[in-house]
Automatic annotation (TrEMBL):
It comes from the Bacteria. This is Nicotinamidase-related amidase. Residues 9-154 form the Isochorismatase-like domain. PANTHER family: HYDROLASE, ISOCHORISMATASE DOMAIN-CONTAINING PROTEIN 2. InterPro entries: Isochorismatase-like_dom (IPR000868), Isochorismatase-like_sf (IPR036380), Isochorismatase_domain (IPR050993). Coiled coil: none annotated.
Length: 177
């Protein structure tokens, strides 16, 4: 496994929806880190993709995320790979950077689906959440056992930058201060 490469990355934000938020343990922290990832992705030309689970029932993506014009895929299947056409949105050689709710359901099933189809997946530990901390930790261990790399927001940002000489270094570094 190599460093995360901004030129090969796709940021995938799973089900950061308003009606889920009150139930998620430490939701604010995960949401803050997802926002950092999304802002940095915009600065570094990393494409982003969002999903919404049953948006009619769970509502839209929370307004705190700077979504911009990133595409949003509505789904009924817990794993996004179960949504027809979803896999076509993921480039074959992409390093998929994953954040989202709920770690042990939609995030887990999406990650396992991506791994099954041969994608390199990085799960951002501090940008995922579940209702119960045990569910999140169990999901992280399972995803890692199946081949996902477990990373943090700062790891992703600094691997995307690679060097303090990067022209956007100061802007991206300011996101984590």
């Amino acid at each position: 496994m190599s460093l995360i490469d901004s030129a090969r990355s796709l940021l995938l934000l799973i089900d950061f929806q308003a009606r889920l938020m009150p139930a998620i343990h430490e939701a604010e922290a995960a949401l803050r880190n997802a926002g950092r990832l999304l802002e940095a992705a915009g600065m570094l030309d990393v494409p982003s993709l969002l999903t919404e689970q049953n948006p009619k029932g769970l509502g839209p993506t929370v307004g705190q995320l700077p979504v911009g014009d990133a595409p949003v895929v509505a789904k009924q299947s817990f794993g996004a790979c179960g949504k027809e056409g979803f896999a076509d949105r993921i480039p074959a050689n992409a390093q998929v950077i994953v954040a989202g709710w709920e770690a042990h359901v939609c995030v887990l099933q999406t990650v396992l689906g991506l791994l099954e189809t041969g994608h390199q997946v990085h799960v951002v530990r501090d940008a995922i959440g579940s209702r119960q901390p045990e569910s999140k930790e169990t999901a992280i261990r399972r995803m890692e056992r199946h081949g996902a790399e477990i990373v943090t927001t700062e790891m992703v940002l600094f691997e995307w930058l690679r060097t303090a000489a990067h022209p956007r270094f100061r802007e991206v570094a300011a996101l984590i201060r």
